[in-house]
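Example 3.2
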Amino acid sequence: MRILGLDYGENRIGVAVSDELGFTAQGLETYTRRGRRADLNYLAAKAGSYGVELIVVGLPLNMNGSRGPAVEAAEGFGRALSQRAGLPVAFVDERLTTAAAERELKSLDMSRRRRKMVIDRTAAAFILQVYLDRKSDRASAPAEREK
């Protein structure tokens, strides 16, 4: 089952997709927003082209876990995309994913200019990987209890 991961932002949306087995996430692109309708159409088509069965959207919670306007915007966009694409949506706490992506890119000795170009899709891959890892942990938990 393939899953699409999104790092939703005001100006750009990072896009990632899982492998067909749902184990790993790969950053695809950084999509520059063109208006809500165009954004929804583009991402619904992207989901269709990859045979996606679920969309995961990062929630930009505040560091203390509280919700702000950015969370409401991400949830609203996720719900609208769910309707447009005809797919379920899940939300994942994305706190620190951009920081983790930045550290990863710096460790690759990537220039600041190049990091800026790929940070959103890298953050989307981190968001999606968090979801995949949690899903894997939940799936293996019952088997471990049986031991």
